[in-house]
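Morning!

This is the sequence you dropped in the shared folder:
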Amino acid sequence: MPEIISCSKLINVAVPGTIDERAINTKAVLNPWERNENHTLCLNSAKAIGCTVVNIGTQDLVEGRPHLLLGLISQIIKIQLLADLNLKKTPQLVELVDDSKDVEELLGLPPEKVLLKWMNFHLKKAGYEKQVTNFSSDVKDGEAYAYLLNALAPEHSGPASLDTKDPAERANMVLEHAAKLDCKRYLTPKDIVEGSPNLNLAFVAQIFQHRNGLTVDSKKMSFAEMMTDDAQTSREERCFRLWINSLGTATYVNNVFEDVRNGWVLLEVLDKISPGSVNWKQASKPPIKMPFRKVENCNQVIKIGKELNFSLVNVAGNDIVQGNKKLILAFLWQLMRFSMLQLLKNLRSHSQGKKGKEITDTDILKWANNKVKNAGRTSQMDSFKDKNLSNGIFFLELLSSVEPRVVNWSVVTKGETDEDKKLNATYIISVARKLGCSIFLLPEDIIEVNQKMILILTASIMYWSLQQPTGESENTSDESPAASIGSENEAVLSNEVSNLAIADAASDTTLSPEVGNEKSSEKAENEEPLQNVENEPPSTKDEGIDTQDKE
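The structure's back. Tokens below.
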């Protein structure tokens, strides 16, 4: 148990508030199921802050496999160390570039590259003639560090570190100078001399945090603030970025708006959620120098989107190349939604032994309401934009209905004040992750009732629930959960999956040509297709979700 507490605290240090510690099972003696829940919470939370955990499972944590644990811990530490290396957190970074085009390039750089750019910026001003391109061989002799510290903290440094010919002695002097800036000793002189990349990166990040040496130019600062996104856009970008990285694609996304513009990342995502849909012979892999190759990639993205019945009115590949944020977010939303609905459809197909009918937003809504009602609770959800959802009570009752022992009602608030709503929302997210839901929303998405994220949260709980063998909810024995989690026996799948088909037969809704946008006249007032034409007449949609937010 101490190891999960340590993991949770480490994740919360990296990204404060990620794990609600009220959701951790903290009894003196935990049965295997409860330990598994704690490990699942840790892994899903690590995924939710940007860690790659594709090849790490709860059993790896139980067995304490060193290389996997060290890899996970190093990712968490790296996220914490590099958290401020972006224009939103440190707008002074705009000093590293000269014009707006360079700012766009800076926005798309991974944090490690921004750190190198920052380091070379100061080294050049200090007269260091070499270019540092990595945190290994280029810093082994310690000269770059000596120049950097002399430039940033001349009061603590001096010519002695440059005069010495012994790399080990210079490395030791560098660390002594850094210690005067309160930099923690992540590494030894030997680590510098041997060029340990992770430890050297951590060392440079520490220097940046304590003394970045950047000035506050009011004009440049205001320009940097103009380049950053509003809160809603930032949250959606974060959600889609984390979701893409959780899929295990070859390309790691650092900034959605910049990284998707060549089309390659979107093709990788499409190939993951709809295998075989991408014609790789017609795709160009980065780095792509010729602009028309980027347009070709993005044109194929749009073509596949239309084949998957996405709502794409007057949208062309060039809109993605140009970085149209509104269209990019709307397209990514349809990708995420399609992926979730396909998972549910495949589960239905498995339970029925034949190709299942499309899962609709209405199905998900009905399932959630029926689940809560059958558990003897009274709250209901009118739609995925029902403002009453902001207090979190419905989702806590839904989680309790799929796993009665998972919610500790003694820590739940009435959700009447903003503070109480946030406490409930934070708890909901951690409890859902603890069960096994892979979700990337923030408490604000629940409090503000972001209908897109509300749909994904509900669908994720549904997907987890329908995979559980009958009676598993009541399992509190010491029997290992491993067998039940991996069960492929369709006989033990909940009858709720096939019951959805019965509900379909009784429903008046039918699937429209646009995926998941079922015709339902009473729910159509705020729906609007993804388009690139102002004042285009909106088509009739189902209750579910706007493909883009109304502006």
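Headline: The radius of gyration is 26 Å.

More detail when I'm at my desk.
O.
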